[in-house]
Amino acid sequence: MSAASDLALAAAAREVDALSSAGERLEKLLARLTRLGALDADAIMQAQAIDLLAQTMQELARFMRSVATDFDADSQAVIVRALADVRLADLAQRLDVFCSGAPETPPENNGVELF
To answer: Does the pTM exceed 0.90?
Structure first.
């Protein structure tokens, strides 16, 4: 992979990091609303999707940075090492195109009912 591709992956990781930070800010807002009693129990459960969103973005950024650092090596070995850094098992499985032969289609809303 070229230096330009490495830079593109690193840039994509930074973008995902920024989105993850936005998700964390939303989590803090929801916590504040919860403390104020502005959310009922159902709304709180539905809002947990924001936590999943933030975690998934953090792991995608980690994956992209790991791939970008040494993608000029054997590409399959690089992907395997990068996948080992992904701490969300479902996400790692979807990213693992070498074991399955094709990327897995993520479940709609990652199995979470969004509001």
So the answer is: no
